[in-house]
Amino acid sequence: MSEKIGFVLDIFLIAAISLLQSLNLISFAGIKPNLILVFLIISIFSVKDFWQYIVLVIISLFFLNYFSIFSKELIIFGAIMILAYYSKILFSEHAFFSILLLILFLTPVFYLLIDPLFIFNNFNVFIKELIFNFIAGLIFSFLIKNPF
Amino acid sequence: MNLIRIAILVILIIALFGSNLNFIKEKILSSANVQSEISKLELENDSLKAQIFINENLSGKEIRENTWDYFNTKVFSNYPFNNQSLIAINAGINDGLAVNQVVVSAANILLGQIIKINQNASLVRTIFDNNFNIAVKIGDNKVNALLRGGLPPTLEMIEKNKNIKNGDIVYNADQNFPYGFKLGEIQIINSENAAEPFKKAFLKTDYSIGSLEDVFVIKNFEVLNK
């Protein structure tokens, strides 16, 4: 029962975070942390099975949709996040460190696939986003792993 | 664990819908509203300054009032990642809009250009986007520069011997946008590096892309290079 409630809450959380990101409500000096990437990575280690995770990915894409759901960026984002689920097999023992490693790995991979020049031409912005994502991952995974 | 999820969710919902909760708005977030009003007034003030600047600096004696046909529309979403700075507006082909039309944040304040359109919505590339590059002029001396979009936008190729100072108005000189429309002001000037042949500066705007609610599309400006 508690797991089901947790999953329903995850759905609402994913929807709210995606909306915040697509409405540009969370940004620091104009730079948006990729909170949805962070939260989906955390979900890899908290959902019951692959299908629950797929539901979360689809909901995130639906709410991240800024103009067209079939935009290259969203399709690649969805594909990366689905593939990331299988990292669970590699990192099943140390979820906390796996989450942080995946954030450090997937943030550049995502930009390399959608717009590789962005990393090189705007290295400053990229590094700041990576740091924000890492901090968000640290906070979220600490909170979820250590309830009051 | 679920308690944590609920707590995070409540915080996010407040962040999302906080502006609609009147009691919070009045009691806790009143300073944010005042800030938003100040921001709007600053934009309006900027727009009037830009109009004066255009009137004083345009060649030709005949000054036309209400030259541009502004179409008011709402911003409904932003590109969610950092590699581009795009906004989606809730007007499209059905409202008479078209690709390449110019978008402004207030009268005479250049914001961007429509790059994609469908029946009911349009996608706008803003001056904060990495692919936004236009020719601009700076201040009363009309110093030439190249504006490169980004966070923040930068002004490059400024000749070293030209006299510019912080606060100088940066205005458009690109044929694809109305001449003289203001983009912002110069903020930091990097003139100390002797090795570089040109000066570089940042562009300061009185608004942030996330704070925009209403923008205007100029329907009667024809772009030369489509």
How large is the share of residues in beta strands of chain A? under 5%
Helices of chain A, by number, come to 8
| Largest interface, counted by CB within 8 Å of the partner chain's CB | A-B, 46 and 34 residues
Which radius of gyration of chain A do the C-alpha atoms yield?
A: 15 Å
For the record, the CATH class of the largest domain in chain B is Mainly Beta
Q: Could you say what the CATH topology of the largest domain in chain B is called?
A: Thrombin, subunit H
Strand content of chain B: 25-35%
User: Order of SSEs of chain A, N→C?
Assistant: HHHHHHHH
Mean pLDDT of chain A: 88
> What would the principal axes of the Cα set say about the shape of chain B?
globular
Enumerate the spans of chain B where pLDDT stays under 50 for 5 or more consecutive residues. 20-25
What topology, given as strand order, has the largest sheet of chain B? 1-2-5-4-3-12
Q: Give the CATH superfamily of the largest domain in chain B.
A: Rod shape-determining protein MreC, domain 1
Element-level helix/strand string of chain B: HHHEEEEEEEEEEEE
Largest sheet of chain B: 6 strands, antiparallel, barrel
Q: What are the segments of chain A in which pLDDT stays under 50 over at least 5 consecutive residues?
A: none
Seen as an oligomer or otherwise, the chain set is heterodimer
Fraction of residues in helix of chain A: over 70%
Distance between the termini of chain A: 20 Å
Number of helices of chain B: 3
Helix content of chain B: 10-25%
Main traits of this protein?
heterodimer, A: 148 residues, mainly alpha, 8 helices, globular, B: 226 residues, alpha+beta, Thrombin, subunit H, 6-stranded antiparallel barrel, 22% helix
